[in-house]
Design brief:
The protein has about 450 residues and is of the alpha+beta class. The chain has 17 helices and 14 strands. Strands 1, 4, 5, 6, 7, 8, 9, 10, 11, 12, 13 and 14 form a twelve-stranded mixed sheet that branches. A two-stranded antiparallel sheet has the order 2-3. Helix 10 runs antiparallel to helix 11. The relative contact order is 0.16.
Length: about 450
């Protein structure tokens, strides 16, 4: 290793002090901050929120201080359908209901993985991976499908938001404390040679404590409820004694097995036109396997356009913090000019960013529109879940070039895949390591 000699640092210091341009930049950046100093107004000019395909969606939702974007995005796609089918206004499905069952199932998923890895040392990479974050708010499309298929959905009026669903920090903190403590007990039981039945009996008691913790913190999920509303024409409707499953079947009615997760991961270890899954990625034991088909970006975007043109919004996952403005809601490669500001080349390819930990999927939203000019997509309308005070009443504009670089996943009806890709989808997926970037939770 080479040490930094004081003379080298002094040389850097003297050069900076003598450079008038750098001193002027310093004054501006110190006063205004890096992002504000580098923001490029031209990005707003280049991304006017007008689209040739624009789906009616109603008002945006607000996940508040929680990491439930993947749930909000999925429930929003259902909401779009229900608003149009039943002439609803300002309607939302209960994110708190889905949140409850996700925490409950993730706890069991963690316990089962702890049991499965009990023969490994604590410092093995898999055990360390499990204990680093026993559970969190984020998730993947197939994980939300597992919840919907097992528990159904309910309107927000049947299980409203709670303090702990809107701000989940304390809930996550104490649930993870419990899960880590329980992991010590489960591993000790197995090391002591206890039978599988004895271990499962102890685990069941742990799960009961988890259920009680969640019910105390979030409320008790309804088993039956009434759905009462007035539509846009002021007509009154009452549907009584619904279950979450019967409500889903009657009012949502989407066959989730008809949808596939399509990704764009241009790394050497993931050839295109193949399927992939991620080890230890899931929430519902016995639920839907997380599975992706990897395609080139041109195919990726054509599939998204096709679904939008048929009037259906698109769940998608991206790295939202990259080159995007929260206030004006612009996701564009020229939103900030950091290269010019610092005279440093920050450029990396999409594959390099994935391989070297610079980028991965961090947020899920919904594509609700696209601007197609001469057969080519130029920009996309994005429904976020951060409330109406950001972007254009909660909607963002994503440039086509930004999608190329920072969008990683879309959910598409299987029938939109080419016949060749439909055959590829039937293949057994390659299993990726638990820490692969494609296993990131939005």
């Amino acid at each position: 290793m080479s040490v930094i000699e004081p003379t080298v640092t002094q040389k850097f210091h003297d050069s900076f002090i003598e450079n008038n341009k750098l001193n002027a930049l310093q004054r501006g950046v110190v006063k205004n901050g890096i992002a504000a100093s580098a923001q490029n107004q031209q990005a707003e000019v280049n991304n006017v929120p007008v689209f040739s395909v624009d789906i009616a969606t109603g008002k945006v939702a607000n996940q508040k201080q929680s990491g439930r974007c993947w749930m909000f995005a999925a429930l929003n796609t259902f909401r779009h359908k229900m608003i149009n089918s039943f002439n609803l206004k300002d309607f939302e499905l209960s994110q708190n209901y889905t949140f409850f069952w996700d925490k409950y199932e993730k706890s069991n998923y963690f316990y089962e993985n702890i049991i499965a890895t009990a023969d490994q040392e604590l410092d093995s990479r898999k055990v360390a991976f499990l204990l680093a974050t026993p559970q969190q708010d984020g998730g993947q499309w197939d994980m939300i499908v597992s919840l919907f298929q097992k528990y159904g959905v309910v309107p927000k009026t049947a299980m409203p938001e709670s303090s702990n669903s809107s701000n989940s920090r304390d809930l996550n903190n104490y649930l993870n404390k419990k899960l880590r403590k329980d992991a010590t007990i489960l591993r000790e039981l197995i090391t002591a040679g206890k039978s599988a039945a004895e271990v499962q009996s102890v685990k069941e008691k742990m799960l009961e404590e988890v259920y009680n913790f969640l019910a105390t913190s979030l409320g008790t999920p309804p088993e039956t409820f009434d759905f009462e509303y007035r539509d846009e024409e002021k007509s009154y409707h009452l549907d009584q004694k619904l279950t979450p499953q019967s409500f889903y079947d009657k009012y949502v009615g989407v066959n989730l097995d008809d949808y596939v997760s399509v990704i764009n991961a241009p790394t050497a270890d993931k050839p295109y036109n193949q399927t992939y899954t991620v080890e230890m990625l899931g929430n519902v034991v016995g639920g839907k396997e997380v599975k992706y088909i990897n395609v080139d970006m041109s195919t990726f975007k054509k599939l998204a356009v096709a679904q939008l043109e048929q009037g259906e919004s698109v769940w998608f996952g991206c790295d939202v913090g990259q080159s995007s403005t929260r206030d004006s809601g612009i996701m564009s490669l020229d939103a900030y000019d950091m290269n010019d500001l610092f005279d440093i080349d920050f450029t990396m390819t999409k594959a390099q960013r994935l391989d070297f930990g610079e980028s991965l999927m961090t947020h899920a939203m919904v594509l609700t529109g696209v601007d197609v000019i001469d057969g080519t997509s130029t920009k996309w309308k994005v429904e976020n879940s951060w409330g109406e005070k950001v972007g254009d009443k909660g909607f963002f504009v994503m440039s086509d070039a930004w999608m190329d670089e920072y969008t990683y996943q879309i959910v598409i009806r299987k029938e939109l895949l080419s016949k060749e890709l439909q055959e590829v989808w039937k293949q057994e997926p390659t299993v990726l390591a638990p820490w692969d970037p494609m296993g990131a939770l939005a």
